[in-house]
Design brief:
The protein is an alpha+beta fold. The chain has helices at 36-48, 69-102, 107-114, 118-125, and strands at 5-14, 17-22, 27-30, 55-63. The chain has a 4-stranded mixed β-sheet with strand order 3-2-1-4. A hairpin with a 4-residue loop joins strand 2 (17-22) and strand 3 (27-30). It is elongated and about 70 Å long.
Length: 167
């Protein structure tokens, strides 16, 4: 049985290259972000004498270059704000659909009032199950991540599935 060596990397754009800073020490580079996994795996394999396929690479942070980090953070925050607004809107529509049902409107009538299909009305008035409830918290974090922070992603697909979702 081969053990997997998990490597976290921070990618920083410098000129036409990505400089890859490995957690725990070490630096290498790649021409594109799509090459990060193979370049880091090659580096770790050679410097730590482990099989290439035993290296698992996760990009934990991406700095796109001078002047862009702030724009990237602002864009991520705007996405998180939009997601929270969408969740609030969906909650209000569900509450309204249930209120309309309690006041005697049929599913077809509710569909017309809300501008949705009858099937969507069925979904809206259904009692939510624990797995269908949103994981956004009051502080704005989603799935345990701070709002606006990217999920760590794994590049490529040659070494298995993503390790933890993507932004």
């Amino acid at each position: 049985m081969t053990l997997t060596m998990d490597v976290e990397v921070r990618a920083v754009r410098e000129g036409r290259w990505w400089v890859l800073h490995l957690a725990g020490g070490g630096t290498t580079q790649a021409r594109t972000l799509t090459q990060v996994e193979s370049m880091v795996a090659d580096y770790v394999s050679l410097t730590h004498d482990v099989p290439l396929d035993a290296v698992s690479v996760t990009i934990t942070d991406i700095d796109p270059g001078p002047g862009l980090a702030q724009a990237l953070t602002a864009a991520r925050e705007a996405q998180a704000d939009a997601m929270r607004a969408q969740e609030r809107a969906a909650s209000r529509v569900r509450a309204l659909a249930r209120t309309l049902l309690e006041r005697g409107l049929s599913g077809a009538e509710i569909a017309i009032v809300l501008g949705v299909s009858k099937q969507r009305v069925s979904q809206l008035i259904a009692v939510p199950t624990p797995t269908s409830v949103s994981t956004a918290s009051v502080d704005g974090s989603v799935d345990g991540r701070a709002a606006g922070r990217p999920r760590p992603t794994r590049t490529g697909t040659s070494r298995g599935a993503l390790t933890s979702g993507s932004a």
